[in-house]
């Protein structure tokens, strides 16, 4: 069972998200938070697998909450769900440790798939967001040594957690390296990144 915490300062949005998961046999909403601070408290209490995180909230915004969760609860996956897809919104969230980034106009089927993927530790990016991330990393050039190390481990079947352990870095860092690699390779997921890296002779 995938335990989900919904974080958004709008009650109507929270109700809609809870409704989207109703009837899904493998997903359970364990709590709702209206701010980043409330999300931190509820994560400590309910230990969810995935936190759906809005970005712009009172008291503590989404990026601030993601940074704190990366330190206090590194095993929790954070899936950003917001209306904002500007590069200045996307990159800080990914760099803070978000597993994925979806927009609120995404179809319910995409949301459900993203939650399941996030629970597996897979990065999930909305198509328009992937373009923003690509723009942010466009000047970065070829894959770095660390990005290649992460990709080699992923190709061997390692999860983000396992890769982090082998490389002595945080899961958040693994996610950041993966997202950077995705954008440089022009792909949106792990399998495609590994395939493209093999095609280019990088692995």
Task: Describe the protein.
The protein is an alpha/beta fold. It folds into two domains: 2-131, Response regulator (Rossmann fold), CATH 3.40.50.2300; 141-199, Orthogonal Bundle (Arc Repressor Mutant, subunit A). 54% of the residues lie in helices and 14% in strands. The protein has helices spanning 11-21, 36-46, 62-72, 87-96, 108-119, 127-137, 145-155, 160-167, 171-185, 190-199; strands at residues 2-7, 27-33, 50-53, 77-82, 100-103, 124-125. The protein has a six-stranded parallel β-sheet with strand order 2-1-3-4-5-6, with helices on both faces. It is globular.
Q: Quick one: biggest sheet?
A: 6 strands, parallel
Task: Output the CATH class name of the largest domain.
Answer: Alpha Beta
Care to count the β-strands?
6
Q: Going across the major beta sheet, what is the strand order?
A: 2-1-3-4-5-6
* Span of the ends, CA to CA: 35 Å
Q: Helix content range of the residues, please?
A: 40-55%
Class inferred from helices and paired strands: alpha/beta
- Please state the average pLDDT score: 89
Overall geometric form: globular
CATH topology of the largest domain: Rossmann fold
Modified residues (4-aspartylphosphate): 54
Protein name: Response regulator transcription factor
InterPro entries: CheY-like_superfamily (IPR011006), NreC/VraR/RcsB-like_REC (IPR058245), Sig_transdc_resp-reg_C-effctor (IPR016032), Sig_transdc_resp-reg_receiver (IPR001789), Tscrpt_reg_LuxR_C (IPR000792), WalR-like (IPR039420)
Domain Response regulatory: 3-119
């Amino acid at each position: 069972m995938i335990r989900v915490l919904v974080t958004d300062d709008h009650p109507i949005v929270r109700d809609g998200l809870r409704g989207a998961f109703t009837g899904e046999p493998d997903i359970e909403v364990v709590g709702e938070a209206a701010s980043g601070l409330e999300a931190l408290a509820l994560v400590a209490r309910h230990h969810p697998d995935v936190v759906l995180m809005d970005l712009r909230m009172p008291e503590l915004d989404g990026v601030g909450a993601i940074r704190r969760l990366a330190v206090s609860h590194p095993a929790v996956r954070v899936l950003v769900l917001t209306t904002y897809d500007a590069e200045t919104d996307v990159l800080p969230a990914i760099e803070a440790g978000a597993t994925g980034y979806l927009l609120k106009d995404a179809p319910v089927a995409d949301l459900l798939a993203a939650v399941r993927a996030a629970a597996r530790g897979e990065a999930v990016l909305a198509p328009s967001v992937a373009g923003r991330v690509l723009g942010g990393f466009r000047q970065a050039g070829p894959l770095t040594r660390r990005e290649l190390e992460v990709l080699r481990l992923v190709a061997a079947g390692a999860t983000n957690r396992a890769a982090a352990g082998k490389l002595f870095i945080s899961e958040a860092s693994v996610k950041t390296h993966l997202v950077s690699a995705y954008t440089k390779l022009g792909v949106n997921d792990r399998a495609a990144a590994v395939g493209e890296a093999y095609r280019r002779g990088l692995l």
